Amino acid sequence: MKAIRRFTVRPVLPEPLRPLHDLARNLRWSWHTETRELFRSADPEGWRPADADPVRLLGSLSAGRLTELAGDAEYLGRLAAASADLAEYLDGPRWYQEQRAAGAELPSAIAYFSPEFGVTAALPQYSGGLGILAGDHLKAASDLGVPLIGVGLLYRHGYFRQTLSREGWQQEHYPVLDPNELPLDLVREADGTPARVVLALPGGRSLHACIWLARVGRVPLLLLDSDVEENAPGERDVTDRLYGGGSDHRLLQEMLLGIGGVRAVRTWCRLTGTPEPEVFHTNEGHAGFLGLERIRELAAEGLDFDAALEVVRAGTVFTTHTPVPAGIDRFDRGLVARHFGDEGELSGVPVEKILPLGTETYPGGEPELFNMAVMGLRLAQRANGVSTLHGAVSREMFSGLWPGFDPAEVPITSVTNGVHAPTWVAPEVFRLGAGQVGEGRAHQVLAGGPVADEASAQTGTPRRWDAVTGIGDQEIWDLRRDLRGQLVTEVRRRLYASWRRRGAGTAELGWIDGVLDPDILTIGFARRVPSYKRLTLMLRDRDRLRSLLLHPTHPIQIVVAGKAHPADDGGKRLVQELVRFADDPRVRHRIVFLPDYGMGMAQKLYPGCDVWLNNPLRPLEACGTSGMKAALNGCLNLSVRDGWWDEWFDPDFGWEIPTADGSAVDEDRRDELESNALYALIEDRVAPRFYDRGAGDLPDRWIEMVRSTLVNLGPKVLAGRMVREYVERLYAPAAQARRALEPAVAQDLAAWKAKVRAAWRGVSVDHVETVTGDAAGGSAELGATLALRVRIALGGLEPDDVEVQVVAGRVDSGDAIADAQTFPLKPAGGQDLEDRWLYEGPLTPDRTGPYGYTVRVLPAHRLLATSAELGLVALPTEATGEGGGVLMR
């Protein structure tokens, strides 16, 4: 029979075991080894069936076992120590508090919005890298004491669970997640009733959501859930699946995340006394509507739209994660219009003000679509990509929003992603390092705090990381083999389970006992399966791959995992192609595909691999943090120079796969060239180095690369480093900018911008001349100073409203200025009879060869984050006078 109602019966813990409840409800256990071991030892046999989830484990313990543990003095001692450690972790001052005590002007709180969070496999609310990054961001913020509030949605079916058919076709399953069985607590009002947020929908309908709290160390993560009785069936399903449904469904999800998320934060702060956030961080465009809700709040306080927009922009940080326009959510403008205004949400905020925020005004844009990333950029004064290369790609991709500026000047910076080492470093690796520096210092190192001293700051490598150099070659090699052996065991277990689900009987699966070998070079490849990541590039020449797998003296073995989006049949075909190759009896002991890639699998996969493979189409990988996680475990990277590997590649850390990007080849030819380069690298350099044994039968050069990876690359890839950069470079300036915009100041700034925009058509560079120097003759000596005189029409603006610059540098054959430098020109006189202003200043060429300059006028105001903020620039015409805009050689 089927139950007509489901509910959760919580265990009643004996008084001595009560601290287990708080330890289980705070997700710090997911990265704190001692706490995980405490729960595992409570029931070693039940730990794996509970998916290493303390909440489920406690619910499965028998009364007899609880009584036994309550009388175990040794266990209670460990429990008391873990409980005290958590209390100190939650309440003690950390890096952020030390910075504030030292006088740093930091935000009182930051709200961090993301459509997905990968904190632990026990809370499956993620699909891939974006969610894992968001989870690592929260955990690192907690370790550093950063007062972050996370905001997301609670998906009742999560993403999906992946299995394979007998033919190797991906199949999706959506198990129902009961929040009462997850490490979550319902946020309640003071009277005990569940807290609610409500959104107005067209036609007089409403969307209600409750708020679930996940404790991520010191960081509260608020997850909105629409599956509540107040909603009609359609509205109850808004938070059913991550990245599911059509446009209307996705729009409602993103409205709930952004608008409902701000309301959830306000509720949380009201109920707990937490300071209101001064900075709002939008992790991708999905949460962009949060800016509109904050405008509505300010409008209710009396600010007009334009002034409220300035206040919101000042305190907003926007992070883009996609290097391709196809990865951005875009909605029909009519659909957006129906959900806002007096008939829907944000009553009092004019729809005609909302729609332009998401309009693609750049060449090639589609004006009938509402672009969430474009809105995110327009609602944020500070924006960033997630690696140095991705920052450059983003500036190029969005340059149309700043016409007249070179892509290099587009105000999008970059903060390279990092990974949360305590989550991803294997306990065995941690213990080896702790043996050198002590357990407490090892925890500090992995938390990613600042470098230890001035000498360390100059190299970027804290001295405590140098302790790895004292670990012997034999110890490192024994560790690597142990981790490889653990992976072999895990792969066989998972492969057996997968084949049983594919319909194989026990008698057919004896061969699995011989899959993989703990002494063979092991390569890992695991990620989502969009086409640009090229899951099957390794299959380009199957005979050559087989020869690598079965090499008589230098064999390799490959472990592959990954999920295709449920609607992506092309991605599913790639999965099936790889699975069918791995099913071949000739090679199935050397290459495997493991379904249902997730955090639990990844935590075994990264440490157990010797080489991490990444071969995307460059430059389509925004960052690619999986290789970072592998590196922290002593795994070497074999990757295309994309994402983070482009800026931190070093031959001591691994190998770069040569690429054919930028050359005039079609995609098929490019795959052929790059796959051949991949095969050659493995065959000629990677495998020989692994098997090249020296004294003591050890691969000395390989071990030295492992050591260098840990010592020199390790500190760079930490999420702690990443979060500190966000605090210092983005959060602190955003908070200071927000504090400066009192209502009257915001009104003045909005009025000034309106004045400048209205007058800008009348701003021009009318005449440029070289007063002294020989540039007019076509040459100048290095070090010579040229005196420039420029006449500018300001269209009714005052000199204080603008900045006049000379832009100079080396020029190419097309007279484009490269590596440009800017020099200010100063007013040298008032208006002439033609309403022009005179500006003068020197220019001193600092390099030989073809050199040129031009002059431009930019808006200038003390509250602008950059001179490009308004997207306005006036440049010379073709006939501005001698030297005017003419490139000097």
What does this structure look like?
The protein has 31 helices and 26 strands. With 889 residues, it is an alpha/beta fold. Strands 1, 2, 5, 6, 7, 8, 9, 10, 13 and 14 form a 10-stranded mixed beta sheet that branches. The chain has a 6-stranded parallel beta sheet with strand order 17-16-15-18-19-20, sandwiched between helices. Strands 21-22-25-24-23-26 form a 6-stranded antiparallel beta sheet, with no helix packed on it. Strand 7 and strand 8 form a beta hairpin. The longest helix has 29 residues. The chain starts with 18 loop residues before the first helix and ends in a 30-residue tail after the last strand.
Counted by DSSP, the helix tally is 31
What's the average pLDDT? 91
**Beta-strand content estimate:** 15-25%
Low-confidence stretches: 451-461, 881-889
Helix/strand/pairing category: alpha/beta
Tell me about the largest β-sheet. Answer: 10 strands, mixed
Report the count of strand segments.
26
Overall 3D shape: globular
* Helix amount: 25-40%
Catalytic activity: [(1->4)-alpha-D-glucosyl](n) + phosphate = [(1->4)-alpha-D-glucosyl](n-1) + alpha-D-glucose 1-phosphate
Family: Belongs to the glycogen phosphorylase family.
EC number: 2.4.1.1
Keywords: Allosteric enzyme, Carbohydrate metabolism, Glycosyltransferase, Pyridoxal phosphate, Transferase
